[in-house]
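dumping this here so i dont lose it
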């Protein structure tokens, strides 16, 4: 149900505004009678005032009910010192049905006592899924509240990336654009940021240090910028990227060339805590002409070796694996064995949602793709390849319709994905990591005042 006025939101007396604050008088009634309505209003209402009121209520309620956006920096640093090991943190991109899928993740976490997991959204996903950082964060917080989850919540900006052509032509303007995105995300509680200047790697020169020079320089500049704007007592977890995912596998020389130049201007202990590398994957997987996913051979030796270098030489938690959600199930247990610090998962969750969409809605989506994404179609692609490659672009335009799926459909999606999340948590060895998170992560409640949402 959508709220139609601010008065209607507060009429029940379950919550009450008091200046800049919101007081939750009855937490159980809040969960049962108000929470889903706040979600519906944020997603479906056309009133900016109502949406911003719902955001204010969300953050204030989360603060009171011990759901606190936090940084995992200290846990990653402990891993860099070899104080802890043996698990790989999943960073999960929820491109659609974010509230419903996040609820499933929190249920799985409670069943397994897991705490070391991240919710992330990439710069590109913010655009094509029509999920600005504030909305994405609110969906995660509301999902945690709905499932009575208490503790630190980890939100991450994934691939906050420089665009090469824009940077080449208008360097200051493109840098300022990325600064603005980072500021927006940090203001919403994104205390994990993956800084991606890898498009600036210059493979046209033979010298590896020269190849990585601009990538390292800009990553260092972005790192210093984040440290200037981060909230008091919060040290944001930062990652960098040696080479763009989908290219050739990263080598030890490339990792060292990047990090050595980065560390010339940024103290390693105040810089990056993880490093993204390429080991043979592609974002979204490789779709074959018949619509099936090609088998990917990940170079686990490279992953292990570069993770060891990252820890032993630079004090980082290890390497980060992108583009892994469409891998076969038998691959996932190998990531903790290889010392992988973090793994990014996205496309498979989207695929499950598409599997359960009503045929009539899928036909509307596919017709929209044929009309609006035809310019992206390669001449050699089959229809299956075109749809698979482009269907993520429809998630924003069809967000309202997907959010309005029947409860039965959403429950079938949730049931399928809960099994998948439980499997992933087990294989990545994050079961029973909640005590580790409580030990190493310093939760710092940030007072998100009313004025923050009505600027």
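and the seq i came up w/
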């Amino acid at each position: 149900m959508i709220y139609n006025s601010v008065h209607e939101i507060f009429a029940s007396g379950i919550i009450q505004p008091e200046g800049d604050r919101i007081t939750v008088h009855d937490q159980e009634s809040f969960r049962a009678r108000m929470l889903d309505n706040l979600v519906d209003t944020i997603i479906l209402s056309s009133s900016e005032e109502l949406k911003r009121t719902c955001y204010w209520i969300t953050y204030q309620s989360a603060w009171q009910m011990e759901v606190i956006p936090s940084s995992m920096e200290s846990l990653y640093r402990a891993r860099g010192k070899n104080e802890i090991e043996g698990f790989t943190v999943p960073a999960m991109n929820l491109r659609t049905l974010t509230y419903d899928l996040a609820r499933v993740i929190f249920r799985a976490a409670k069943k397994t006592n897991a705490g070391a997991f991240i919710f992330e959204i990439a710069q590109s996903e913010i655009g094509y899924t029509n999920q600005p950082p504030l909305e994405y964060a609110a969906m995660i917080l509301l999902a945690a509240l709905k499932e009575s989850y208490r503790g630190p919540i980890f939100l991450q900006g994934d691939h906050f990336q420089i665009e090469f052509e824009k940077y080449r032509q208008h360097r200051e303007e493109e840098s300022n654009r990325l600064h603005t995105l980072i500021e927006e995300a940090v203001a919403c509680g994104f205390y994990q940021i993956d800084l991606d200047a890898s498009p600036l790697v210059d493979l046209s020169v033979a010298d590896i240090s020269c190849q990585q020079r601009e990538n390292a320089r800009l990553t260092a500049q972005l790192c210093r910028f984040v440290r200037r704007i981060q909230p008091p007592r919060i040290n944001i977890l930062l990652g960098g990227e040696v080479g763009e995912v989908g290219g050739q596998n990263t080598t030890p020389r490339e990792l060292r060339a990047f990090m050595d130049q980065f560390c010339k201007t940024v103290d390693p202990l105040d810089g990056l805590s993880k490093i993204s590398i390429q080991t043979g994957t592609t974002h979204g997987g490789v779709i074959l002409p018949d619509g099936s996913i090609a088998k990917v051979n990940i170079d686990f030796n490279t992953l292990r070796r570069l993770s060891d270098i990252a820890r032993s030489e630079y004090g980082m938690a290890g390497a980060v694996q992108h583009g892994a959600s469409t891998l076969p199930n038998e691959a996932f247990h190998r990531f903790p064995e290889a010392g992988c610090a973090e793994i990014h998962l996205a496309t498979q969750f989207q695929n499950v949602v598409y599997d359960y969409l009503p045929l009539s809605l899928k036909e509307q989506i596919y017709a929209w793709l044929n009309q609006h994404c035809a310019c992206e179609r390669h001449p050699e692609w089959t229809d299956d390849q075109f749809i698979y490659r482009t269907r993520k672009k429809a998630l924003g335009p069809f967000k309202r319709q997907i959010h309005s799926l029947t409860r039965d459909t959403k429950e079938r999606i949730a049931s399928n994905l809960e099994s998948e999340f439980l499997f992933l948590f087990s294989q990545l060895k994050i079961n029973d990591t909640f005590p580790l998170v409580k030990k190493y992560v310093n939760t710092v409640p940030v007072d998100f005042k009313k004025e923050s949402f009505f600027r």
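The mean pLDDT is 93.
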